[in-house]
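During the no-cost extension, the postdoctoral fellow (Dr. R.K.) reprocessed legacy sequence entries with the updated structure-token encoder. One reprocessed record is reproduced below for audit purposes.
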Amino acid sequence: MVDIFDEINEDLRAERTARLLKKYGWVLVLAAVGIVGGTVGWQVWDRWQANRDMAAAEQYMAAQAAAVTANVPGAPGQSDAIATLERNAATAPEGYKTLSLLRAAGLKANAGDIPGAVQLWDEVARDGTADPLLRDLASLLAVQHQIDKGDPAMLEARLKPLTDPTNAWASLAKEQLALLDLRQGKVDDARTALQSLAESATAPDGVRQRAAALLAGMGDA
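Re-encoded structure tokens follow.
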């Protein structure tokens, strides 16, 4: 009797399985195809990404090579290097896009095109997908190149967040704020900031030396 019941149960399970396969077998087929297709798709995507990265790297290096002789304003190849970098930024993955924009901005600044350079630095500074370190650097460079003519309130608003002690550019941002104070006639504020930078153990040597030189020029050697 037990054997008969076991056989009946097995038959029922087999029949139920057959009905399920007949009704939903296409789902299993699609799932299998999806798994295979997904694997192939991922490999294709991964290869495409690698090729795109390589192409972006090659374009960036080509622009860098052109830029080597383009650091002097008006040098041959400068406009070509800028154009190559801007084209690369339009299609390159995020890292190369940011580097290309920063390099192009530097070349424009060297050529005297400060508004064009600031526009590119601002583009990097506003890019939420770019590395925060590079975003802050772009913002600092944009301010630095407007420190003598830009709107003081706007420049100060951009510099203040960069003076946080945890920010990599804090000392340079404080230096720019001191220069902005000097421009506005806030001599005491500038002197205090420069004294702090000159005595700072964490500020780069160049910042300390410039701060000391400015203090000397103000009669605070």
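The chain has two domains: 40-145, 151-221. DSSP finds nine helices and no strands in the chain. The remaining legacy entries will be reprocessed before the final report is submitted.
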